[in-house]
Write a structure and sequence with these properties.
The protein has 471 residues and is of the alpha/beta class. The protein folds into three domains: 207 residues, FAD/NAD(P)-binding domain (3-Layer(bba) Sandwich); 112 residues, FAD/NAD(P)-binding domain (3-Layer(bba) Sandwich), CATH 3.50.50.60; 112 residues, Enolase-like, domain 1. Helices cover 31% and strands 25% of the residues. Strands 1, 2, 3, 4, 5, 6 and 16 form a seven-stranded mixed beta sheet that branches. Bound molecules: 1,4-dihydronicotinamide adenine dinucleotide.
């Protein structure tokens, strides 16, 4: 038989096995929908598990440990200079990835989900062809596109591809370069910059805009920037990359910063200038699916595309390109396909940058609220007044609550500090529940804990913070 000749039927085909796609497939299967999951990679889990969120967190864990061991000298405990066995660090990272990816495969099997390895392409609005080791042609009742995104590349004329790596390349941890240039001071650049700095690289950051981490409020980025300024060799903002070329074993990079022109050499260059949705080569031209001018697939609140049988979720379906947003959308699409009433109606999607300190925010940022001309009250609580933060030796944090000026309804929360990524969940719940600043302020928080800073920031909105002076 010629591979793919036989047309098989499936109720649902999900294209992409990342945190959008596999979650959609699992939810659909749990609701009794016979489901097929297609992924080009033999290992399920997507970029997030294989070469993104998870391996970077494993490496950041190692980086934080090195950093804490160093900081302990101030608390009376001195460790020797760390000996770093890069092969072992890489093995540790891979063991974390393998464990989680293996878990996803086991869960898929237990749910009787048919998993096909191959590249899927629409032949029309009802048929998919899968090219790969297990080729197939599938007639589906519904399809979910969850193909994710890939790193944006800079033009060859600016930096040739063989002169740089992207986040996937950097996470391979092939070597620890003596010098690393990070182009792009966003989530990926700063997280990976800290990893390589802890492992011994000298880091330089070149960012086009006038500050790092432009997605969050400036006061939240500031404590992180202060730390990075000490850890990194140089941070250049408002810098314009001009050219890069290989010179011997190094990469020579030229960039301008106002009137200054810098020409510097690096052992490695990481390009982390954003990601772009992956919709090419899907055969969407054979369907009614609409792709907008930014490359995202247009969807409604149920994540249905303009082609009624086809849904799209995750990075292909719009910003923010975050795994947890993709998973939620996957659940919505699966439920709608199974005949349930569901919509993607999140009031707040948390964003977390897992640097040290972590930066996390949700809902409206203060700058967004001010730009929109909303009447707001902002309550801030500096971690320098938090017993737990001081006891951890990390008092540089800040928690802020943005509330409606009339009603005190919580519109947004931002946190910078140790474990901000965990603390933000309470704020997301508060916004989802329509909480007022009073609700958080009157909730008894454990003492001593950094979660108290959210309570005190809410009190600050009301002018009643105990550990901060009234304005
Ligand atoms: P990003 O959008 O966070 O940051 C890219 C930065 O590159 C921006 O500050 C931009 O101004 C700068 N830039 C663009 N072109 C440039 C140029 N030619 N020269 C210098 N700077 C330039 O993108 P990043 O860090 O690549 O991450 C991509 C996405 O992946 C994030 O937006 C996020 O959605 C996701 N992600 C999430 C993580 C998390 O949840 N912790 C971790 C990593 C990535």
């Amino acid at each position: 038989m010629v591979v793919g000749e036989l047309l098989e039927e499936t109720d649902l085909v999900v294209i992409g096995g990342g945190p959008g796609g596999y979650v959609a497939a699992f939810r659909a299967a749990d609701l009794g929908v016979p489901t097929t999951l297609v992924d080009a990679n033999p290992v399920l889990g997507g970029v997030c598990l294989r070469e993104g969120c998870i391996p970077s967190k494993a490496l950041l864990h190692v980086a934080h440990l090195i950093e804490n061991a160093h900081a302990a000298a101030e608390w009376g405990v001195t460790f020797g200079k760390p000996k770093i066995d890069v092969d072992k660090v890489r093995d540790w990272k891979q063991s974390v990835v393998d464990k989680l990816c293996g878990g996803i495969s086991t869960l898929a099997k237990k749910r009787n989900i048919r998993v096909i390895q191959g590249v899927a392409r629409f032949e029309d609005g009802r048929t998919i062809r899968v090219d790969g080791p297990q080729g197939a042609r599938l007639k589906f009742k519904h399809a979910i596109i969850a193909t994710g995104s890939r790193p944006k590349r800079l033009p060859e004329s600016l930096i040739p591809a063989d002169c740089c790596v992207d986040s996937s390349g950097a996470l391979e941890l092939a070597t620890v370069p003596k010098t690393l240039l990070v182009i792009g001071g966003g989530y990926i650049g700063l997280e990976l910059g800290q990893v390589y700095a802890a492992l011994g690289s000298r880091i330089t950051v070149v960012e086009a805009l006038d500050r790092l981490l432009t997605g969050c409020d400036d006061d939240l980025a500031r404590p992180l920037v202060a730390r990075l300024t000490k850890q990194f060799e140089a941070v250049h903002v408002s810098a314009k990359l001009e050219a890069a070329r290989r010179v011997g074993k190094e990469i020579e990079v030229a960039f301008t910063k106002g009137p200054e022109r810098h020409v510097l050499k690096f052992e490695q260059v990481l390009v982390s200038v954003g990601r772009q949705p992956l919709t090419d080569n899907l055969g969407l031209e054979h369907t009614q699916v609409v792709v907008n001018d930014r490359g995202f697939i247009e969807v409604d609140a149920t994540r249905r595309t303009a082609d009624k049988r086809i849904f799209a979720i995750g990075d292909v379906a719009g910003n923010p390109m975050l795994a947890h947003k993709a998973s939620r959308e996957g659940i919505v699409a699966a439920e709608v396909i199974a005949g349930h009433k569901a919509e993607f109606d999140a009031r707040a999607i948390p964003a977390v940058v897992y640097t040290s300190p972590e930066v996390a925010w949700c809902g409206l940022t203060e700058s967004e609220a001010r730009a929109a001309g909303r009447a707001i009250k902002v309550g801030k609580f500096p971690w320098g007044a938090s017993g737990r933060a001081i006891a951890m030796g990390r008092p540089e944090g800040l928690t802020k609550v943005i509330a409606d000026a009339q009603t005190n309804r919580v519109l947004g929360v931002g946190i910078v500090g140790e474990h901000a990524g965990d603390l933000i969940a309470e704020a997301v719940l508060a916004i989802e529940m329509g909480a007022l600043a009073e609700d958080i302020a009157l909730t008894i928080h454990p003492h001593p804990a950094t979660s108290e800073t959210l309570m005190e920031a809410a009190e600050s909105v009301l002018g009643t913070a105990i550990h901060a002076l009234r304005k």
